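Appendix B, Record 12. Input sequence as logged:
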Amino acid sequence: MRKILFLSFAAAVLIAFNANASLLDDLKEMVNTPVQTGPAGGKAELGLKEALNVGMKNTINYLGKKDGYFGNAAVKILLPEKIRKLEPALRGIGYGPQIDEFTLSMNRAAEKAAPLAADIFSTAISEMTFEDANKILRGGNTAATDYLKNKTYNKLLEKFQPQVRKTMGEYKVTQKFDALNAKAQKIPLVGQAVNMDVNHYVSSKALDGLFLMLAKEETDIRTNPKARVTDLLKEVFK
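Logged structural output:
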């Protein structure tokens, strides 16, 4: 009788142990599985990074070509505001061609600088954590762009300014600005000197356009199925 009870007890212990082992395995798997937000775990992070890389490449390819800035009203760099207020008067005294040359030269400088953003963007995207990705996926249509802007803006500005300065030298941007400024000072009653760092102005406006177009690319990928050009994007943003 004791032998039978012992065997029954042993069997019960083995059954309980196996059941608990299975439960422990299940718990271990749950602990090691990333918290999911919409798309499945790691794929969400990979999909977001891929979306950013696709958007970044599209943006730089678009803005870095001839008329990328100049031919797009949404990002075209216009005259500095103080000069813009005097534009009608300057054109009225025959200075229209110089205004047009100055505007074109600013945009050409921005177009040449745009490709410099690629490496900085790529580094920021690769360093994005799973937690960052989850927050971004829960955010609005431009959450990823906002994240990148916060992470990269100062680095981009620092990198853009030397290239913009070099290109502005090729197009004589500063000289053209100085000529406009000198002419503006001579306009009766309204003339005044405009003190500003043209290099910083063009660089910051170039970056404004860059992030504006990147936000458009991100929104397109999130909302337009046709913009999801890879299988991963189709799966993550379905």
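DSSP finds eleven helices and no strands in the chain.
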